[in-house]
Amino acid sequence: MFLVFLVAMRYMSGMLTVIMECRDQESELAQTLSVLVSAAVEGLVSDVVVLDHGSRDGSSSVADAAGCRFYGHWDIKDILRGARGEWLLLVEPGSRLQGGWIDEVMEYIALNKQPARFAPARNYRRPFFKRLGRAVPPLEYGMLLPKRQAIALAKSGMDLETLARGQKVAKLASEMIPAWVAAAVR
């Protein structure tokens, strides 16, 4: 049984495309991309796409240096169709996945078809009163979803947050430090 699982994992490797939107988030982009390096080495991440909203900083240089596809003008339907992976990971620049996420995502995409989000990092929570009555943005803890489902939902002019909104998702055990932590230090 374990051998079958390993074969399935190897088959699924390289099957994840990471997509982010940015605007003047050079340092946040670099933080998120640095966490993805080990996933690329493991064969999980096949490509990273950065969708820009008119950045005037070095965001394009950071994306280029990391080997990402960088688009200044784009339509979400074209981006999704061009994604190399069969699964998509939508994240915000500045968010950072915590240890163990690679193995969990590899297992999840091998065995599931439903979208999923990462768990909030326990050490990085908003103060209690700031959490009360606050709607959590759709990408605060990322979104892992099948490419086929994303293409079916996408409409021209749509952004990633709108694409992720309203999805019924499973919750992964792996934690994500949200992007607002990096932005607060800025």
From TrEMBL:
Gene3D superfamilies found in the cross-reference section: Spore Coat Polysaccharide Biosynthesis Protein SpsA, Chain A
Domain of life per record: Bacteria
InterPro entries xref list: Nucleotide-diphossugar_trans (IPR029044)
Protein name as annotated: Glycosyl transferase
UniProt organism field: Neorhizobium galegae bv. orientalis str. HAMBI 540
